[in-house]
Each structure stands twice: as structure tokens, then as C-alpha cells.
Specification:
The protein contains 14 helices and eight strands. It is an alpha/beta fold. It starts with 8 loop residues before the first helix and ends in a 7-residue tail after the last helix.
């Protein structure tokens, strides 16, 4: 059963009517194809009107949609010959990050991404996509391996932020994130980073300090979650909507600020409504970005990366 967001209630009502008509068709043999067709057109019109005027807070909700494409689906849809690589060779395996060798359109690459999980058991295993120090150290290990063998690195981010628990802090969470950012900057091969859902705080930047940063249309990228920001500034998470507007967290805002290099258009109603089409568009965009970097030498790639982040934010919002 499809999950509907709060602002999608009119759409949910229309889809409920379609289900009722289909049930009648199955039980009474009635021909209701014409009526269903009319309702489908109304749904498409309602979706277009609703998603055309989404505000930052609504986009946060879409970015967090439980049916949104996850890392494992991206691996299955975009890559072939994927070989999982695990462990940080220091403490343990962190299931919040999936990484390994694969082929992207026949090209050998290193793939690294955060995974929130698809059901309750899987989300607990993945720690809801909140990475611990060992996860970032695993990512560093894989980036260093990619650099050694001359492989482009493709990272995918979907996390509310790094795990803030006591154990993570005791094992050097801040240091692990800093070294992951350093590993991104020092990588001698192309690095394409994609924000597929939430890009939260340093936990996202640790994997997203790339030569090129791509965002899905309804993804968000922020220094802190709207709820966290509201709790600090207004002492109440009830002001999350106001915080979301002030934070400038949408893909469109990030493009204006020069943080992102490409925004991938999502299907009508969000990526979760047509994951196959979303992955096709994402694949084409990543391919274009890789092509633009293919002739650059290692020193030029590093310089390109550093200049990108030094200049970041120089573009103002109108």
C-alpha cells in the first residue's frame, strides 16, 4: 500500500476511489475502465499542481519518503558485477554504508553510499543511515583503494547525519568525518557525489566532497536538520517548517549557491512513484559528469575539487 504524505491527502482520496472501483470490477464484473481513466487524469493534474508549488518543508518530507530509492536499489539498477567490500580493518563493519567494486556502463568504478534500510529490521541493522566512525573509515579505505587502482569513485548520500551516540564519539566520530573529507579531497581519480534523499550535516559532506555534486530534484542538503535547527533557535521542533525555509536546503537553492553541479528531474509525484525512470535519468547525469572529468589528470582533479569548495557560496541567492 502506497504511503502518502500529509500534503498529498487529496491525491490519496482519489487513489482510494480507484481502488474501490477496481474492487467492484473484480467482484461484480462491471466495466469501469472509463471512470478509472478519468480519475487517473485528475490524479496527474493534482500531482502536477501540488509538486509545482512544494516549499522547502514539503521537499524535506519527500526526501524522507519511506519508498524513495535506496542505495541497494541504486546498486541493482545502475551497476553490474558489484562486489561488496566490508569492514574498516580497525574496529568493525558498519552496515549504514554499502561499498564495493562494480561496473558502471562497463567502466570499473568504486561505489560507496549510505543506506537507510527498507523495513524495520533492515533500518535497525543500517542504523537508519546514520554512520558510525567505522563506516567512515571503511569509506576512506575504499577511496584509497580506488585511488591506488585508478578507479573513479561514485558516492551516494541519504542520511540525516552521522550517528551522535556516545560510542561513536568515543571512537572518534569527528576525526573520522574529517579524514573522510580529506580522503575525498586527496583522491587522484574523479569523484561524483549524488544526494539521493537527505544530505545531513558533516555526515553527508564526508562522502560528498566531490568534483561534481548531483542532487535529485526533491533531495535536500543542509548543515543541520530543520528540527535540530528549530530546537536550537526557537527551543522547539515545532518551528521546523520556518527553519527549513531559512536554511536554503533544496536542490534548487543548492544549484543557485554553486553547491551542486546538476539537478536530476524526478518523475511527477517524486522519485518513489517511478524508480526505474529516476535511475535512468540519474545514470545519464552521472555519465555526463564522468565524461566531463575523464581527460583530467590526478593533479588537475585535486585542484578542481579544492577550487570548487573554496569558491562555494560565492553565488548569491536572488
Amino acid at each position: 500500500m502506497r504511503h502518502f504524505l500529509d500534503f498529498e491527502k487529496p491525491i490519496a482520496a482519489l487513489e482510494g476511489k480507484i481502488e474501490e472501483l477496481r474492487h467492484l470490477h473484480n467482484t461484480d464484473g462491471l466495466d469501469i475502465a472509463e471512470e478509472i481513466g478519468k480519475l487517473q487524469l485528475r490524479i496527474e493534474k493534482e500531482l502536477a499542481q501540488t509538486y509545482r508549488k512544494l516549499g522547502p518543508w514539503e521537499k524535506v518530507q519527500v526526501a524522507r519518503h519511506p519508498e524513495r530509492p535506496k542505495m541497494q536499489q541504486i546498486i541493482d539498477g545502475l551497476f553490474t558485477e558489484f562486489t561488496l567490500l566490508t569492514g574498516d580493518r580497525n574496529y568493525s563493519e558498519d552496515h549504514a554504508i554499502i561499498g564495493g567494486l562494480a561496473r558502471f556502463k562497463g567502466m570499473p568504478v568504486m561505489v560507496i553510499g549510505t543506506e537507510k534500510g527498507t523495513n524495520t529490521q533492515d533500518r535497525i541493522k543500517r542504523n537508519f543511515g546514520m554512520v558510525r566512525p567505522e563506516g567512515y573509515r571503511k569509506a576512506i579505505r575504499l577511496m584509497e583503494m580506488a585511488g591506488k587502482f585508478g578507479l573513479p569513485v561514485l558516492t551516494f548520500v541519504d542520511t540525516a547525519g552521522a550517528y551522535p551516540g556516545r560510542g561513536a564519539e568515543e571512537r572518534g566520530q569527528a576525526e573520522a568525518i574529517a579524514r573522510a573529507i580529506q580522503a575525498c579531497l586527496n583522491l587522484p581519480t574523479p569523484l561524483i557525489s549524488t544526494i539521493i534523499g537527505e544530505g545531513g550535516s558533516g555526515g553527508a559532506i564526508a562522502l560528498a566532497t566531490g568534483n561534481r555534486v548531483v542532487m535529485l530534484e526533491h533531495a535536500v542538503y543542509s548543515v543541520i536538520s530543520p528540527e535540530g535547527c528549530a530546537s536550537i533557535l526557537w527551543r522547539s521542533a515545532e518551528h521546523a517548517k520556518t527553519a527549513a525555509e531559512a536554511l536554503r536546503i533544496t536542490a534548487q537553492d543548492m544549484s543557485k549557491l554553486g553547491v551542486t553541479d546538476a539537478v536530476v528531474e524526478e518523475p511527477l509525484g517524486g522519485a518513489h512513484r517511478d524508480i526505474t525512470l529516476t535511475l535512468q535519468r540519474l545514470s545519464d547525469t552521472i555519465s555526463e559528469q564522468l565524461s566531463s572529468l575523464s581527460q583530467m589528470q590526478s593533479d588537475s582533479l585535486k585542484l578542481d575539487r579544492r577550487e570548487k569548495y573554496i569558491a562555494m557560496g560565492s553565488k548569491g541567492l536572488s
